[in-house]
TrEMBL record:
Native organism taxonomy: Bacteria, Pseudomonadati, Bacteroidota, Flavobacteriia, Flavobacteriales
Name assigned to this protein: Alanine dehydrogenase
Alanine dehydrogenase/pyridine nucleotide transhydrogenase N-terminal domain span: 6-111
Oxidoreductase in keyword set: yes
Pfam families linked to this entry: AlaDh_PNT_N (PF05222)
SMART domains the UniProt entry points to: AlaDh_PNT_N
Highest taxon, organism lineage: Bacteria
Keywords assigned: Oxidoreductase
UniProt xrefs under Gene3D superfamilies: NAD(P)-binding Rossmann-like Domain (3.40.50.720)
InterPro entries in alphabetical order: AASS, AlaDH/PNT_N
């Protein structure tokens, strides 16, 4: 049996440069499964060029309608669906909380990076470029050795999977991890962070009061993390940046008044009035609330998606 897979270009998300498989991954799949054929729909936008696919022996065409299965990142409009074809859209799998597509680490990596980018912008200390500027993680971490941070305190609230991505940024910026007790009771000569994965078991106000930056997954293990207006408006609080890693799951974080976008990821929140203001307002907390940060990191996200599909989906074709 011969089966043709077509990799579609993203029609309804012009800014989404992700793709289901990298050129190298398709080359490897061809060797593993000789009965499978892969074709890539020509695109000027995706992170990997047509020429990169062709260099690996993958056919690139403007017409892939003869393929049996069509794979994309985002669902396409019903009017563009081809009768009789099978479709697989990665974002549908992610929205179903499919355990094969937990992009928690990449989401928190980008969200954590944007938190420091926001802090540098707010206080005009340094100017970090958009994360999409970097071709890969190695380039990103090398660049992050440049900024010199003041002795900030950062609270990271999320899952162990979230922490994996955040630690890439923390280590690159030479931010030391400390215990919660030390975080609350001691002063440090360097930037430090503490990790909380059970916020319901602590007094969250004690952490937000002494933190300069909070990076928060608003839903951990199905439980919402509550950050109220009153908590954000604590007298003498230092908090100046809140990065909401999951702004589409709940409205439990008061400063997340709306979702932001990769092109305009920051806005100001005035906690005493519970309203949006300019991020340079002296009383403003800068909010980062991009709902899908992996769009900003297309190369490594695509490679992650491709590895999951290659490991779990492609083998099922023969069952």
């Amino acid at each position: 049996m011969s089966l043709k897979f077509g990799i579609v270009k993203e029609l309804n998300q012009e800014l989404d440069r992700r793709v289901a498989f990298s050129p190298t991954q398709l080359e490897e799949l061809k060797l593993l499964y000789p009965r499978l054929e892969f074709r890539v729909e020509s695109s000027d936008n995706r992170i990997f060029t047509d020429e990169e696919y062709e260099s690996k022996g993958i056919t690139v065409s403007s017409d892939i309608t003869d393929c049996d299965v069509l794979i994309g990142i985002n669902p396409i409009a019903p009017s563009n669906l081809i009768l009789g074809k099978e479709y697989l859209f990665v974002t549908d799998l992610i929205k179903k909380v499919n355990p094969l597509f937990t992009l928690d680490a990449l989401t928190s990596l980008v969200g954590t990076y944007n938190a420091f980018r926001a802090f540098g912008l707010k206080f005009e200390l340094f100017k970090l470029p958009a994360i999409a500027t970097f071709s890969d993680q190695a380039t990103l971490t090398t660049y992050l050795k440049r900024p010199v941070l003041p002795p900030l305190k950062i609270t990271f609230i999320g899952s162990e999977a979230n922490l994996v991505g955040a630690e890439v940024i923390m280590k690159a910026l030479k931010i030391k991890k400390v215990s919660s007790d030390d975080f609350l009771s001691k002063n440090f000569a360097q930037a430090v962070y503490t990790f909380i994965n059970s916020p319901e078991q602590i007094n969250l106000e004690s952490f937000t009061t002494v933190s300069d930056i909070c990076i928060i997954n608003s839903s951990i293990n199905g439980k919402s993390v509550l950050v109220s207006q009153e908590l954000l408006n604590t007298k003498d609080g230092k908090l100046r940046v809140v990065a909401d890693l999951n702004p589409m799951s709940t409205n439990s974080i008061a400063c997340t008044l709306r979702q932001s976008t990769p092109e305009d990821p920051f806005y100001g929140y005035l906690p005493n009035e519970n309203k949006e203001v300019d991020l340079h307002h002296p009383g403003a907390i800068v909010v980062v609330a991009v709902p899908d940060t992996t769009i900003e990191y297309p190369k490594e996200t695509s490679e992650f998606i491709g590895s999951q599909l290659a490991q779990y989906y492609i083998p099922t074709v023969f069952k």
